[in-house]
Amino acid sequence: MSDMSEASAKHFARSIIPLYHNACVTIRISSIEYKYKVSKDLLCRESTYFSAMFEDKFKDFEAFLQWLYLGKFKFDLDEPEHHIAATIELARFADMCNVTGMQIQIGRYPKDILIASPCPDYEGGGGVDTYCLTSQDIISATFLPQGHEIRRILAAATLSGYLLCENHKFAEEAREYPTYGFDLLQEVGLALKGLRFDRKRVIHKYHLTGDNRNIYQFRSL
């Protein structure tokens, strides 16, 4: 915290004093059976950990509680990209708390959203199911453990663009984040094992939906 004695009177009165008089939170240390009552605003101002916990993690915790009691969760959000971002954060929260039983459902949630929200202006070339994905989604997912369902889903969704377009939507992320690049290469390996050829096309099994999609269209002579 900056030296309060150096603050102007206006800043001290309007910005610093309220930190000590707003809502408080109680922190209980079980090992010593003692409770500390602390200004919530002051705690959040000086700690990004507590700020994230109070401002964002409560949403994750609420979704976790819904899953714990009902076996499912539902976010009160409008846009599909917000649902995907919230699901990735819930997955990170579950991983942090060593909750393993909800991984499959967490992976299914963004998968269904991606399939249901394709690019409206798609004209081929890969990336039809990445319309709702953002760079931050790709980056956030890299913090999940290797083999996590969400990492696999995001890699599968972006595979076609990676194979068909030199400058695909997440080309920079594939270069800058080795974890994501590793996931893509794993999907490439699966795609190569399932390649099929006919007279006009090279086809691979699209793991996001299970259907067959073109990788290459042969030119007519």
From TrEMBL:
It comes from the Eukaryota. CDD domains: BTB_POZ_ZBTB_KLHL-like (cd18186). This is BTB domain-containing protein. It comes from Penicillium salamii.
